[in-house]
Amino acid sequence: MNDASRVIEVNGLSLIFPTSDGDVHALQDIDLTINQGDFVSFIGPSGCGKTTLLRVIADLEQATSGSIEVNGMTPEEARLARAYGYVFQAASLYPWRTIASNVALPLEIMGLKGDEIRSRVEHNLALVDLAGFGRKYPWQLSGGMQQRASIARALAVEPDLLLMDEPFGALDEIVRDHLNEQLLKLWAKTNKTVVFVTHSIPEAVFLSNKIVVMSPRPGRIQEVIESDLPAERDLSIRETQAFLHLANRVRDGLRAGHSYDEVS
Amino acid sequence: MVSRHVNAAIPVIVVTLAIVVLWYVGAALLNLSWEKSVAERNGTAPSTIEMLRNTMHQERPVLPAPHQVVSEIIDTTIHKKITSKRSLIYHAGITLSSSMLGFLMGTLLGIVLAVIIVYNDALNKSLLPWIIASQTIPILAIAPMIIVVLNAVGIQGLLPKAFISMYLSFFPVAVGMVKGLNSPSSSHLDLMRTYSASSWQTFLKLRLPTSLPFLFTSMKVAVAISVVGAIVAELPTGAVAGLGARLLAGSYYGQTVQIWSALVVASVLAALLVVIVGWLGDFVNRRMGLAHG
Questions:
Q1: CB-based contact (8 Å) between B215 and chain A?
Q2: Which residues in B lie closer than 8 A to residue A52 (C-beta atoms)?
Q3: pTM for the structure as a whole
Q4: B3 CB near a chain A CB, below 8 Å?
Q5: pLDDT digit string (tens) for A59-97?
Q6: Which CATH number fits domain B88-287: 1.10.3470.10, 1.10.3720.10, 2.40.10.410, 3.40.50.2300?
Q7: If we measure between CA atoms, which residue out of A91, A232, A233 comes closest to residue A168?
């Protein structure tokens, strides 16, 4: 691997939140490399720092020590260069804006021209199967459609890097399966690098080519599992031996990190 | 649908009736002593029923009966030309114009102060005590001072009265706007940060729209006290026109019916303004998709 294909490079990164009860080690000694075109999942129980790590990459939190590079820049430089699109757990659409104008929001902020904005909005709404819903308001759409709109909004920036924080966590399983499949198609089509936070083992195994198993107190990386599943997948792959074997390896990793200790 | 409307109206009607009944009872009791003293002076001994009946149409009652106030209002609105000095509509118009000017100035001042408070911590700390102090001073005490000072620097007419309205109305707007500007959720704010939006863009595209429902709620309070401010401002100046002037003239000549009519018109005026601002707020909220949660 040459340096050009490295999108994210993390070395010895730690993050400590000072609280009234003493310091909380949200992240400790994180080493991680994410390459161009990777689909990487962070999986672990709550409190393992998976969302915090994503927020450090996005420059929404700052590391206490260690180094991190995004596209060869500091996270702040990468953020200012709008190097990534971020999808939150809640769709976080602005309720007073239509779907189209929600997708247009980052483009307006980037100062793009009206024609360019219109064509990008149209293109990205079509990409997430929401063509024709541009004039609707968020409350008129289902939760799954809202989350798709928020993915279109992140894609409209045309970033090479997509950061997704449990984007389907609040959706029911049927919608979630469907969106997982769509996301995988989208990833294959666009060759973007995706960093995906989840606490669902099947979701992580189904989507990723690299699974980062994390464990709590202090938040750290337990194991990085490379997936040997074929790149072309559909939902039926979840019944194969290879899939179940991989899911078991993830579960073992979580167990080794004492992730199940307090859950009985 | 019809029956639901009727059901909703019943409590309103009952409360209104109860107030009217209480008002009549109060009028009878409060005005009775005058009837007694009249009877004593004339050396007559009318029956209690007769005296009670008389309490309903005294010329200068302690508390005028509702029908007296209503007929005075009808007499001074419908039966007088709007340009007449005895028309309540004319006087209400005078008060309305200065309270509206004051309300607009107060709303603007409130918004500007809120933006300063939210965006500048140093100014927040130095301004806030003064803003709060300004509202602890009784308006009746400070209104004449403001009017006199403004007169001394040559500001006359509508503006001094509007100033008092502004003095009262900026406060709820400032408080509501500060809350509104700080109300965006952290994920909405984070989103702006991931776009590396400037603070001006964040203000324009996020904080301002989110604050609008808060703005309209506080504007409802502000518009009502703007009317109060305008009336209070009319009292110490010996104004010749406006609802405050009617109150003043009524109290000079013991015209209690006139005072009560002006009071009722003032409260109806304020209530109407609150309803209009409420409608505006509902319209804006619906436009912004917020009425749907």
A1: no
A2: none
A3: 0.81
A4: no
A5: 998 888 888 888 888 888 888 888 888 999 888 899 889
A6: 1.10.3720.10
A7: A91
